[in-house]
Amino acid sequence: MLQAQKLSAAALKYSGLNIESLDNTVLATIINKKVENITAIKDYNHSLTSESFIERKPHEFKRALQGNKRHFILECKKSSPSLGDFCPDFNLEKIVSCYNDRADEISVLTEEFFFKGSFEYLKQVRKLTEKPILCKDFIIAKEQIEIAKKIGADAVLLMLSVLTFDKFLELYNFAKELNLDVLTEVANEAEAKFAVEHHIDIIGINNRNLHTLTIDLNNAKKLYPLFPKDTVVISESGIKTHRDIVNMLPIKNFLIGSALCSEIDIELKANSLLYGFNKLCGLTDKAGIETAINNKFSLAGLIFAPQSPRCINLDRAAKLALNPIYKSKINFCGVFKDADLDTVVEIVTKLCLKFVQLHGKESPEYIKTLHEKCPKLTIIKALGMSESLNNEDYLLFKEYVAKADLLLLDSKNPGSGKEFDKSLIPDFINKDKTIISGGIGPSNIASILTLNFCGIDCNSCLESAPGKKDPELTRKLFDRINEIKE
User: Domain N-(5'phosphoribosyl) anthranilate isomerase (PRAI) spans what residues (predicted)?
Assistant: First the structure.
C-alpha cells in the first residue's frame, strides 16, 4: 500500500499544483515522482518525430458517450497503489480484443512508477483498435498532452485534485487547441461546482478518495445532480458487479479497469460485469452456443432432464462443453431434475462443468453431499414460484439459501414461456446471489431488469423451436439490457 508523503521541495516549487489538496496524501507521493521525472517526459516529447504522429478525428471520445444506453470506458491497467500487481496476464492483444467487442472507448494507464503503465502501451493499443482512447495519467505539463496527441489518444485526463484551477484551465484549453477531448475528474462538491461554472462538458466523478484510497460508490450519485443534463458524466473507480452499475442510475457512463484486468478469463468477467450474470438455457447445438457467446451470456445451459424437449445426451453435450473454441468465452451449466447424485457427479466430471442447476426436489442434504463430492462446483438451486406455496415451502427455501451458491427463481412450469407473479418472491432472497427466470424475452426484459437481480435466465422465449435459439430474438434482448429510458 502506497504511503502518504509531504510534497517535496521540487513539487512545492512546481507551478500549478494544488498544494492544499495534495500535501500529506498518497497523491503527493505520486506527484513528487512525476515532478522528479518531468525532464525525462519533456525529452521523450521532443524525441517523437512528426513521421510518427497519428491524426485522429476530433471529439470522437465525447461522441462515443452519447445516446440512451450505458457506455463503458474499459481500461488497460496492470497495477495500482491500492492493489499492487493485480493483472496476472497483461497481454494487450488479449485485453483489447475483449474490449473491442464490448467497450465504447478504451483507457490506457501511462503512469509508469506506481501503475506500471507506459506511453508504449498506448501506442500498442492504438494499433489494435479504432475506438477512442483516453490517455490516463497524472498530467501536470503541456508536454504530456502533446505526447498523448502524437501517439494517438483522443482524450486526456485532467484532475482537479492535482491542479490549481488556473493551471487546470491552462492545460484544458491547450488540450482543446490540439483537438483533444478532456475528461475532467472531480472528487468533491467544490470541484464539481467549478466544473459547472466553467461549462466543462465531460466529467469523471471518482468514487475513490484519493487521500485515503477508500471507495464510496455513493460519491458519483451524490455529485451527479450538480451537473446540467447535457454534461457527459462518468462514474470512475470501485465498480465490481453489474448490480453496482445498475444501482448508479441515472448515471450511464462507467470507467472500469481493475475489476477486469485482474481476471485471467477477462471475457467471462466482462460479460457478467457489464451485462449481468446471464444464462441461455436449453442449448442443443453449436449454433445455440455461438448465439449465447455473441450475446455475452455468462452461462450456456445444457439440460439433462429426460422429460425436457431440450434434453441433450452426454456425447452431444461433450462435443459442445469440451470444445476448446469455447474455453474462456462461456461457462457450461448442467441442468438436472431429481437425478441420481452419482450420475450428476459423473457428468460434471466428464464435461469438466463448473456449474450445475438443480431443478427438482433435491434436498439441502443432496446439495451438501454434491458440494463434498465436487468442492469447486457452483450449485444453482431453482425454486418454483407459485400461488400454492406455503410456510413450509418458504422454510425450505431458507435452507436452500444457506446450502446453494446461487438461487434461480422460475415459474412452476419451467420452459413454458410463462412469467410468475413477482409478488411471490420472499423478502429473504439475496438478489446479489439470485438469477431470475420465467418467460423472459425482448418484450418484457425492461421490466425484468428493474427487479435488479444478479442475472437472468432465458430459454423458450428466444427460440424458433425447442432447443433452437433464434439469433435475432436473442440480439433484440441483448440490445435492451443496457438501454436507458430517459
Answer: 278-479
Q: How far is CA 370 from CA 296, 353, 357, 360, 383, in A?
A: 29, 13, 12, 15, 18
CATH architecture of 276-481: Alpha-Beta Barrel (3.20)
Q: Which long-range contacts (CB under 8 A, 24 or more apart) does 89-98 make?
A: 89/264, 90/261, 92/121, 92/124, 92/125, 92/128, 93/128, 94/266, 95/260, 95/261, 95/266, 96/125, 96/128, 96/129, 97/128, 98/74, 98/260, 98/266, 98/267, 98/270
Name the residue type at position 342.
D
Residue 3 pLDDT = 87
| pLDDT at res. 486 | 57
Cα 231 to Cα 39: distance, rounded to the nearest angstrom: 36
- pLDDT above 70 for 237: yes
Computed from CA positions of residues 439, 440, 443, 446, in that sequence, does the dihedral angle turn out positive or negative? positive
Is 276-481 the same fold as 9-269? yes
pTM for the whole thing? 0.95
> Topology of 9-269 in CATH?
TIM Barrel (3.20.20)
Domain locations in the chain as residue ranges: 9-269, 276-481
The residue with cell 461433450 is 318
Mean pLDDT confidence for 170-193: 98
Can you give the pLDDT at residue 84? Answer: 82
Torsion angles phi and psi, residue 258, rounded to 5:
-55, -40
Phi and psi angles of residue 45, each rounded to the nearest 5 degrees, phi first: -60, -45
**Nearest to 112, CA basis, from 44, 51, 48, 164:** 44
Q: How much of the chain, in percent, has pLDDT values that exceed 70?
A: 99
104-123 confidence digits (pLDDT tens): 999 999 999 999 999 999 99
